[in-house]
Structure formats: C-alpha cells, structure tokens
Amino acid sequence: TILLRGKELVPSNITSMLGILPSRSFRRGDKRTLSKTWPHGLWSLTSQNVVLSKELSDHIAWILSQIKPVSPQFQQLVAENQFAAELSCFLETVNGFGGITIDNHLAQQIVSLGLEIKIDIYTRWPCVISSGK
Fold first, then answer.
1. How large is the angle between the packed helices 56-67 and 104-112, nearest 10 degrees?
2. Is 24 helix (H, G, I), strand (E, B) or coil?
3. Strands 24-26, 116-124: pairing kind
C-alpha cells in the first residue's frame, strides 16, 4: 500500500491531481470510532485483492506502475505539502521464510518517489495440540 498522510491532506485534492481513485481515504476530523476522529488525512492505494501474487516485488511493481505515469504530480504533492509518503508492506509467513529481496530497479523507483518503505512481517507458527499422554 502506498500511503500519503498529513494534517491538511484532503483526499479529493490528491485524487483530482493524480487521477487515481484511492483504495481508502479520510480527512482529519472524520469519524474513526463513535467517540474518536482522525487526527490527520489519508490517501492510500493498495494492491491487496488486485495483485494475486504472493511475491512482494509483484505488489510493489503494480503500485509503482500506477504512480509512475503521474510521478511529477506525486512528487510535487509530497514536497509542497510535506505529506508523509510511505510504501507499507505486510508479509505473513508460516514457519519463517528466507528473506525479502527488492531488486535495484524497484528500489530506484521507490527512492525517486521519495517514499519511505515499511515492511511488517508476521510469522504464524503451526498450532500443536498435545493429547496430554
């Protein structure tokens, strides 16, 4: 997921400037729960349920392919408004895994967009049920 966050972020302005509909968005002050509101605005685009691959690089490549045609506008938005811009990745594994590889081409695109990359890794260990014997 690519995320733009900022106190003054107005999602409709981002959508209008980039010409890309977000997967999720909200404004500062929008309801978060019955008693809480969001302290910032958010505009995000996710590959979840769009890219069916289990390879992280395929998801990153798809997101970057959506932003690349409008990269000058994207960079201008981030720079002029001082929005936090990140590429947020989530991995879930069973019994660990061998590691993460982001090739040079993808890494250069991420850097050129001024994105910070965050990768959350969760490991699910198989449940072992003991019979007690």
1. 40
2. strand
3. unpaired
What band does 131 get if pLDDT is binned at 50, 70 and 90? low
Residue 83 CA, distance from chain mean position: 14
Contact (CB, 8 A) for 77 and 2: no
Summarised one tens digit per residue, pLDDT across range 20-50 is 999 999 999 889 998 999 989 999 999 999 9
3-state DSSP assignment of residue 70: helix
52-59, long-range: CB < 8 A, 24+ apart: 56/89, 56/91, 56/100, 56/102, 56/119, 57/101, 57/102, 57/103, 57/106, 59/89
Contacts of 111 (CB under 8 A, 6+ apart): none
Q: How many residues does the chain have?
A: 133
Contacts of 8 (CB under 8 A, 6+ apart): 28, 41, 81
**Helix 71-81 and helix 11-18, axial crossing angle in degrees, nearest 10:** 150
Is there a contact between 49 and 26 (Cβ–Cβ < 8 Å)? Answer: no
